[in-house]
Amino acid sequence: MHVRTTVQQRWWSRLRPLGEPEPRARLLVVPHSGGGPNRYLRLLGDLPDDVEILGLTLPGRERRATEPPGATLGEVLDSLGEIGRTGPPALVLGHSLGATLGLHIAHALGEHCVGLIASGQEPRDAVTWLSEHSGDEDLLQLLELGGDMPSVILDVPEWRTSLLGNLRADLRLGRESAERSRGIRIDAPITALCGREDRLVDEDALPGWGAHSAAECEVRVFPGGHFALFDPVNQRQYIEAIERRFAAIAEIAG
Question: Crossing angle of helices 157-179/97-109, nearest 10°?
Answer without folding.
Answer: 50
